[in-house]
User: Fold these one by one.
Assistant:
Number 1:
Amino acid sequence: MEFEPVIGLEIHVELKTKSKMFSSAPSVYGKEPNTQIMPLDMAFPGTLPTVNKEAVIYAIRVSNALHMKIDNELHFDRKNYFYSDLPKGYQITQNLRPIGIDGYLTIDINGETRKIEIERLHIEEDTCKQIHFNDFTLLNYNRAGTPLVEIVSRPDMRNGLEAMKYVEKIRSIVVYSDVSDGKMEEGSLRCDVNISLREKGTTTFGTKVEIKNINSISYIQKAIDFEIERQTKLLLAGEKIAQETRRYDSDKNETILMRVKTDAVDYKYFPEDNILPIKLSDEFIKDAIASCPELMEDKLHRYKQDYHLSEYDASLLLANKDVSTYFDEVVKYTNNFKLAANWINVDVASYLNKNFIEINDFKLKAKDLADLINLIDKNEVNSNQARNIFSKMIEDDISAKEAKEKLGISSQISDVDFVKNLINEVFSENEDAIISYKEGKGRALGFLVGQVMKKSKGRVNPKLTTELVTEELERR
C-alpha cells in the first residue's frame, strides 16, 4: 500500500514595529526580562488597547506579496484560553475576518513550478515567553503583545522539500518587504506543521498530527521526512495514527510526543468589544503596498535583466538582504556589474567569514569598493595588485587611490608597442621555450608570459600580454 502525505503550514511572523500591537510598550528583542512592558501588557484593570498602524501596513504588504484579497475593514476578536503566557486570559486576534484571504505563492522544485495556496493571513498579538524548570516556571512579558501575522496555508504540500521551499519563500518575502528580520533562531519566524497520510488516490484526509515551533528551515524538511516515515510504519503495521502534538528533536532527528489531542479546542471566539471595526480606505491600502521595498523575486529578475548576472551570482547576493543592499550601493558607482558581484561574493564574503562579522559591520564603504573595481576595469591594476590594495584599504581605512600609492603600485601598462618590445626581448632569451610551444607543450606559453611580466616588474596588462605572446608564437 502506498501513502500520500498531506501537509499544511502555519507560520507566525513577528513584525519589527517600534511598539507592540495594542500598547505603546517598546517591541525590542534581547532586553532584560520584564523591562519592555506597559500596564496593558499585564492586563491591569482599566487599560484599553489601541491598534498599531505600522503593523497593519506591514500586514497589507505581506498580504499583497502573497496575492491575497485584502479586507478594507479591520476586525479583531477575542480568542479565549487560560494559559499562564497570557495574563488577560485571552488573545486579541482576527478570526472571522482576517486581513488577507485566498492567496498563493509559487515555489521551484527541481526546475518545476508548484503553486501553494494560502488560506488566510491574520494579525494578532504574541504571548509572553515561558522558561520552564523542574518545579517552577518563569514568565518574561517583554514579548507579550508583540505584533504577529499568522500565515495559514492550505494542505497543498506533499513532502518535506516542498514545505522547506515554501518557508524559504515566505521568509524572503517578510525580510525583503522589511516587515520582519525573519530570524528563526530568535523566534521572529516560527513554523507549525500539520501532517497526515492517506492512501494514494483517495481524497479523504487521514488523522492530523501537529509538529510545533520548528525553529530552522532545514529542520522543517527533516521533521516532516521523519514524521512521514513514522506514520507510514504505523499504518503498514495496522496501527492507527493518534491525533497529537509533537516537537522535533534535532539531536535525535525525530519527533517526540508533547500531548495527545482528544477534541478540537473551543476558543469561544467573539468580537473584541474594546476595538471597533476600522475602515481602511483604498488610498491607505494603496500607500501601504506602494511603500513596500523591492522583493527578492523582483530583485533577482532585475539583476539578471539589467546587470546580466547569472542566476548563481544573483542568488548568492540575494541570500542576504544586507549584502544585496550593499551591492545595490556599489553599482551606483561602477558599470562593471559582473566584477562587482564577483568581488562581493568572493573577496568581501571571505573577509566577513574570516572575521566573523556581518556586511553592516564591514569597514569598506560601497563607493570605495566601486573605486577599486573601476581601477581593475580600466586595467590600471591587475587582480593580484587589487587584492593587495583591498587589504590595505581595510587595514588603514583609506581610499583605493591612497592604498595604491602607499603600496607603490604603478598603473598597469597597456601600451602595445611597449609590451611587444618586451616580448621580443623575452623570446630572444628563451628560444627553447618557443620550440617547446611548437612541439605542443602548453606550459611554455605560461612560462613566456611570466617572463614578460617579470621583466616589466608586474606592470604590464596580463590579459594583453597573453594575447600578444600568443599572436607572436603563432606568427613564428
Note: The longest strand covers residues 112-125.
Number 2:
Amino acid sequence: MYFVSTRSKDGDRFSASDAIMKGLAPDGGLFVPERIPQLPASFTMQHGYAYAAYEVLKPYFEGDEAESDLLTICEKAFNFPVSIHKNDGKDTLELYYGPTSAFKDFGARFLAYFMENKLKKTNEDLTVLVATSGDTGGAVASAFYNREHLRVKVLFPKDGVSDRQMRQLTCLDNNVEAFEVDGTFDDCQKMVKDAFMDESLKGLTSANSINLGRLLPQVVYYVWASFIYKARYKKEPIVIIPSGNVGNATGAFWAKAMGAPIKRIELALNANRTIVDYLDSGVYKPRRSCHTLANAMDVGAPSNMERLFDLFKTYDEFKANVSSHSVDDYKIRTTIKDTYDETGYVICPHTACAEYVRRTYYKDEPTIVVATAHPAKFESIVEPIIEKEVPIPENLYDMISRDCSYTQIGVNYKDLF
C-alpha cells in the first residue's frame, strides 16, 4: 500500500510509515491511500477492540516496515473502553473514555506509540507541532508526554478553548510546550503549515488530523460501531458526526468505503457553516472561524476537506454522499436541556450539535450520534443548563488540578522556535 498527496496524485508515492512521520506531503497536500482497501475477510470483533483495530488498519500497512509491530501498537494505544449508549436505535457512540476524555485520544495515542516505535529504531529526534481548537492539544500532549525522541509544541487560540481544556493543554512539562496564540484556530493551523513549508526548519511533523496517523485510527471506531449496530438492530445506521476540521468525518467516509455497514454520513456543524454553504451553492469558500459554544468545532477552513474532495471528485458526487446542517448556540443549549430533561442523559455542546440534527432531520431513522467529549470538560456551559453538577472523571480531575505553564505569542510561526 502506498500513499500520495491530494495535490499531485501522479507524484511521489510514500509508505504508510513515511507518510505518518512526514505529517504533510512535500507539496503541502495531505496524504491519501492510492486506493481505499476493503475490510479483510478475517475481520472479527470477537477478540476485542485493539485486535479489531489491527484488522482494520492492517491493509493500510501492507508491505510497510511497521507491519509486524502494528498489533503491539494497537494494544498499547487502545487500552480504554469504547461504549455505545443504547436508546432504541437512536444510539450514541461514546468516544470519551480515554485519558483526556475526548475522541482525540484514539488518534493521538496511536500516533505517539507509532512514532516512538519508529524513532527508537533509528535513534532520531522529532518535534511535533499541533494546533488545537480544544480537545486535540490535550490529547496530543497527554499521548506524547515523556515519549522517547519526541518533543511537542501545542498551539491554542487565546480565549478559544474552555478553562478545563486549557488546563489540559498546559499542565505538562518536560517534552511538552504550550503556546497561547493571539488569534483564531485557523491562525494556529496556518502557523503549523507555514512552519512545515519553511525549508530551514528540520525534524518537524504534525499531530493534527492532517497527519495520516491521526486519521487512520478514526476509521476503526466507525467500523466497530456500525457492525455492532447492524448486529443489534439488523439495520445500517446513519452516522451523525459533530464536525470541525473534518478529520473525524473523513475517518467515517473511509470506513464506509472499506465496506462498513453505514447507510449515510451526516456532518453536524456549529455556526461555522463553510460545508453547509458549499452544499447549498456549489462554491467552496473557506472563511475565518467564529466563536461558538462548541468551540472544538470552530473551524472556518477545515483542512481535511482536501481529503473529501479527493474522495468525491465532483460537486455532484460530493453532494450525493455528504449531508450537513448547521446548529447555532441557542439550539445547542436547548438540545442539551431537552436531552437531559427527557432521558437524564448529559451531553457536551459538540455532541448536542449532532443530537439536534438527529432530532430535527432523522427522528424516525436508525442513527448513531457520535459523542466526541465528556460533558464535564464544558461544565461552565452544561451545568447551568441542566441545573446539576456533572461528575468529573478521575483522569480529567487529575489533569486540571495541576499547575499551568504556557507562552503567549502572536501569529508568526517563527515565535515557536
Note: Residues 212-233 form the longest helix (22 residues).
Number 3:
Amino acid sequence: MKKTSLTITIILIFCVLVLSIVWSYFRNSLDSLDLPDTSASEAYDRHYVLIPDEENSVLWQAIYESAVQEANENSAYLELLDQSSGISYTTADYLRILIASQVDGIILKPDGTDEVRELIDKAVEKDIPVVTVLEDDSDSQRISYVGLNSYQLADTYLELVLSLLDQDGGEIMILLDSESVNPIQTLAASQFTGSIEQQKDSGQEVNVSLYYLENSADFDSEEGIRELFVNYSPLPDILICMDEILTECAYQALIDYNEVGSTDIIGFYYSDQILEAIEKEIIPVTLVVDTSDVGTCCIDALTEYHTLGHTSSYYSVGLSLITEENVADYFSETEENAT
C-alpha cells in the first residue's frame, strides 16, 4: 500500500514539474509576441451604419472613408455594410435589421419606394435618425439630406452644354432612370431645359429630350442604352448621363456601335473605365461630387441631431469636373486607394 502511495506521489510531482515547465514556456512565448495594447482600445459612444447603394462602388467607398474619419473624431463607430456575402438583401431588408439592432444612426440612398419610406419613418420614430445621401425622400421623416441641389446641377449642365454646342445648336438628350425617380435630377433636368432656351446664342436651335430607362440594375441599364443606340438615329449631339453606371454603359455603347465622335457624353462621377474614356477624349467631361463633403456632412448631421435634438434639413456639397486637363490626378488617386 505504501509502495502504491509513493508511486502516485512521484507521478503527481512529475506532472506538476511538467506543467510548470509548459507554463513557463507559454509565458515566455507570450512575452516575445508583439500584442496590441488593449488598454488603448477606443470606446465609442454611438454606432452608425452606412448602407451603400452599389457593391464595390468607388463613390460609396470614398464617401465611407471621409465619413469614418469624421465619426472617429466624434466618438462614433461607422460601419459600412458588406454586400459581398453572396446574400441578396434589399435596402428595406437592411433597414429592418438595423431598426431591430437599435443602432444610433443610419445613412443611405433611398430608392423612392413606399416600403423604404415607411421604414425610414419607423426608424426615426424609434429614435434612430436617418440621413439620406445623393438622393432625397422629402416625404419621409429623415432628419437631413446630404447632396447636390437641383440649381447647382442645372447650372453646371448648362455651362457644359453651351461649351460643347456648335454655332447651329444641336440635339441634347438627358438619360434618367425611371426606377430611382430622383427628384433632384428630375428637377435639374426641368430647370436646365428652361434655362438653355434663354441662354443659347441667337440663331442656335436647341432641342432637349428626356430618355427614361426602365430599370436600375446594371444589366438592364446597359440593355436600355443599347436599345437607344439601335432605335435612335441619328444619335443626339450630347448625352447627359446622371449616374456612374449610365455613363459607363453609354461609353461602352459608343465603342460597340462605332459611334465614337458622333456624340459627346457628359458623365457623372468616375471609375477606371470613365477616366480612360476621358484620357482618350471619348468623353469630354464628367461631374464629380465632393465625397469628402458628403461623408463629413452625414456625420455632422447625426452628431448635431444627437447633441441638440435637431439639425439642418439640407446639407449642400461641392461639385467638380474631370476633363482631359486634370484626369491624371484622379488616376493617381485611384492607384493610391488600390494600394
Note: Residues 2-32 form the longest helix (31 residues).
